[in-house]
Each structure stands twice: as structure tokens, then as C-alpha cells.
Amino acid sequence: MSIHFTTAKKHIRRSPFQAMAAIFVLTVTFFVTTILAVLVYSSGQAFDYFETRPQVIAFLKDDATSEEISNLQSKLSTDARIKEVNYVSKEEALEIYKKATSNNPLLTELVSPSIFPASLEFSLVELSHAESLISEVKNEGIVDEVGFTASLGGEETLTDVVSKLRSITFYLKVGGGIFVAFLLGTSFLVLLVIIGMRMSSRKTEIEILDLIGATARFIRTPLFYEAVIYAVVGVTIGWLAAFIIILYLTPSLIQYFGSIPILPRDTLDLITLMLVIFAGELLVGLVLSLAGSAIALSRVRPRK
Amino acid sequence: MLKIKNVQKSFGDIIALSEVSFDVDDGEFVFITGPSGAGKTTLIRLILREILPDQGEIWLDETDITKLKVNAVPEFRQQVGVVFQDFKVLPEQTLRENIEIALAVINLQKAQWNERVEQVMDLVGLADRADLFPAQLSGGELQRTSLARALVVDPKIILADEPTGNLDWETADAMMELFEKINKKGKTIVMATHHKGIVDKMKKKVIRLGKGKIKKSENESDKKESTKDEKIKK
């Protein structure tokens, strides 16, 4: 093991409370960061879900020929604002109706395919395209009526929900970002103070090392290692605590939100997501610790 | 090996050293003596490049150390073994670790550490104290630790600033025997001391400082011989 790493470990053992303070602050910072990162991810997922969810159904006139229908389907398929276009015939519409009313056979007995209109169903890439697209489709000659469906209700309700989600995601990103920046700032200052204190308490040792020919790098490396140890331990504990809580809550959350994929359903995907967050946090933690120690060390009087 | 040329150093209005010049040859043992405030420690600090002179040159072999760039100072110091009056050992490292740190500083491969450390610990007589901490050692043992740390890097020269200052007479005597033993192995030693008894006993070259100036530079044995001759003439 490197002599610098051994020295760093000795420093930590020598002043355990300073080390604990640094690790604790970093743990809290990265615990909150992990939770916020997952919240931002989940709200983004929910937002995407609702934004791409709306289904536009263009009910076709009974006299529409198959060629006209085919032309309109092709036209819609090439439109960049539209995701998928499906043709639902009168017979298929009846099947859908039957399935929906399967628990009440009386409702299906008296209906025939002729009363159901054929339709072209499509989903949107973004909700903002809904208004213009609906009016364009309404103007098509073979279109009788345009319906806008979603599990949440009509067009207005959906717009409202997406708009609210957009706001929530925005505030979560901005508010969470400010909060995390504040915590990171606090961690940075704590690291700065602790490394500065280390330098003061090691004044005699540094003086001796300097006199026997130690380079500035030799003297500073253990302090860099120490800061890195704080960062790695703090990030790992904070992340792990958040991960355990998220793992514990995931089944309930998935059940509560139903088809809205706020978290990956597959455990492997969830672990991958958490590992990506961990890698990012580790990087931020390392930058934080190295910058903090570099600034603390640069304040030491240079050799003349 | 070491050439001090017309060195001058002041601290504010106080002139610590003025027009100091002398040479130290390879393998020589030189005492720098004088009362407190004579400039002994200042001279050692100048040779160690801890401070810079206001004027003059200090040469170690082919290097004028007053012209060294800041980033070249550590490499220069790695060639100089230094022993201090207050030992300057790392209190939370064992004796062995205190010696090993000097090897880490010169970036010697770890595989070679053990042999070197054992060798110097045997030389200074501390082989059985390797795993003790400074607080568990006597003053003499601490000074021998300091000497072992200086020796382990196989320096060109050993600078000792009052190495017996904190030791009783008996321990100081043993310490000086150790220095002499090392000098006989060919190591150049420059020692600042105000301990007249030691200087008289050792019979080495002496640079006498007084108020920052060299009063006399002579070999003690020559001095005694010349005194004898003068007495005979009378």
C-alpha cells in the first residue's frame, strides 16, 4: 500500500471526529442528491408518459373508400408530429366494445358492426401538437369527427395534467438543483476547513519533511488522499442509504402509479439507473474533495 | 566539497553573518563554534537552503545552492543529511517509520528499504528499538534516530546543528563517538556546537564565529601543536 495512503489513514484515525464530520456532511449531501435525482427522473418519466399518452381518434365517415382511408393513413404516418397510426375497422371496433362490456352481455346482444364507425387512431410525439393536428384532421373530407382520449379524461384535463407535471418537473429541477448546490457548497467548505486544520496540526511534521527534502507533492498527497477517502465514503453511504429506501418503496410506488413508469420495473434496470447516479455522484464528490483540498493546500505559505 | 564564499546575512538591522568564507573538503569533519548568537545556526540554515544569503555564494560540489530554483530545493536537500538539536522526529511514527520516511522522500524502491534501515539502525545501535515510538525513547536514542534518518539516504554531507545540545555529557560523548565513526567511513560532517569540551576533545577543523564573523579557522590539533611550539620557544 502506498505510504501516502497509509499516512492518510493514520491522520483519519488520529482525528476521528473531524473525519466523521466531513463524512457525515458528505453523506447527507449525497443522500439528498440521490433522492432528488430519482425524483427528477420519476417526474420526467411521468411527464413523458402523459405527454406521449394522448390518443387522437379520427372517426371516419361510412362512405369513405378504402383508398381514401389508405391515403389518409399514409399521410398521417409520414407526419413527424405523429407517433403511430392504426386503422380500426367497424368489426374491430365492435370487438373492442365487446371486450369493454364483457361483464354485461345484454349490452352486446343488440349491437352490430354497422353502428360502429371505422377510425384511424394515432398518438402524438408532444402534447403541444394536439390542437393544430386535431383541426387539420377535422378538415379531412372523410373524417366525420375527431376524438381526443386519455385515461385521465378529455383534452382539457390532459392538457392541465401535463402542464402541472411540466411545472412540477421544472420546480423539482430548479429547486432541487439550488438545494443540492447549497449542500455541495456546505460540504466543500467543511472539507476546506478540515483539510486546513489538518495542515495546521501537521505543521511540525510538514516542516520536518520539508527539511529532509520532501517535495510539495509528497507533503500534499496524503491530504488529497484523505479528502478522496471522505468523498468516496460519504458518497457511498449517502447513496446506499437512499438506494435502500428506494428499493424498499419501489414495489409500493409501482403499484400506486400503475402503468405510469415512474421507476424502472425491472430490478436490473433500477440497479443500472442507481449505478449511473452513483457514478455521477462519485465524480462530483471527487471533484469537490480535490478542489477543496487543493484550495486549502494552496493557502500554505510557499517555500522561499 | 563545500565552499562558502563571502556570505552575508542580515535579519533587519541585525547582521547575523558577515564576510564568511571557508571550505570543507570531502570526508572532513568541521566544527562551527561560537557563543549564542554568533551565527552558527544561521550558517547551517543557509547551507541547507532554508534561507538565502543577502550576498555571497554557497557551493556544494558543482552547485551554487543560492542560485537553486525553488522546485530544485527538495532534490538538493535529499543529498544532505541533517541532524537537529531538538531531534525533529515525527512523534506519531515509530523509530523505523521515522527512518523509512526519508527513503520514501527520495523515492527509493520499497524493496530496498529494509536492508538500508537495518544497516543504519545497527550502526547507531537502535536495532532493538525499531518499533518504539519517540515518546518511549530517551534523548540520546532520539538523536541517534535523527542521525539514522540522515544517514539512511547516503547523503553527500551531514549537517548537525547542536546535536548534543539537549543531551547529558555521557550521552553527548557517545553521540560524538558515533559521529566520528561515521566520519571515518568517509562521510563529510559539518557540525555547529558551542560545546567547547567536545570540540577540544575531537581535534577537528574548527571555524570560530563571533558576532557573525569568522574569528579563526584552524585545525585543533595544529593549534595545540603551535601552542606547544610557542611555549618551547619561550
Net shape of chain A: elongated
The biggest sheet of chain B amounts to: 6 strands, mixed
Mean pLDDT of chain A: 84
Q: Which spans of chain A of ≥5 residues are poorly predicted at pLDDT below 50?
A: none
Radius of gyration of chain A: 31 Å
Query: Distance between termini of chain B?
Result: 39 Å
Question: Which strand order do you get reading across the main beta sheet of chain B?
Answer: 6-7-8-3-9-10
Q: Note the quaternary state here.
A: heterodimer
Textual characterization of the structure:
The complex is a heterodimer of chains A (304) and B (234). Chain A has 304 residues and is of the alpha+beta class. Chain A has 2 domains: 186 residues, no CATH class; 96 residues, 2-Layer Sandwich (Alpha-Beta Plaits), CATH 3.30.70. Chain A has a 4-stranded antiparallel sheet with strand order 2-3-1-4. In chain A, helix 2 packs across helix 9. Chain B is an alpha/beta fold and 234 residues long. Helix content of chain B is 37%, strand content 26%. Chain B is built from 8 helices and 10 strands. In chain B, strands 6-7-8-3-9-10 form a 6-stranded mixed sheet, with helices on both faces. The longest helix of chain B has 16 residues. Chain B is globular and about 45 Å long. Chain B starts with a strand and ends with a helix. The interface between A and B is medium-sized, with 19 and 28 residues.
Topology:
The complex is a heterodimer of chains A (about 300) and B (about 230).
Chain A: H1 3-14, H2 16-52, E1 55-60, H3 66-77, E2 82-88, H4 90-100, H5 105-109, E3 119-124, H6 130-138, E4 143-149, H7 155-201, H8 203-211, H9 216-257, H10 267-298
Antiparallel strand pairs in A: 1-3, 1-4, 2-3
Helix pairs in contact in A: 1-9, 2-7, 2-9, 2-10, 7-10, 9-10
Chain B: E1 2-11, E2 14-24, E3 29-33, H1 40-47, E4 55-60, E5 63-64, H2 73-77, E6 80-83, H3 95-105, H4 113-124, H5 139-151, E7 157-161, H6 169-184, E8 188-192, H7 196-202, E9 205-210, E10 213-219, H8 220-233
Parallel strand pairs in B: 3-8, 3-9, 6-7, 7-8
Antiparallel strand pairs in B: 1-2, 1-4, 4-5, 9-10
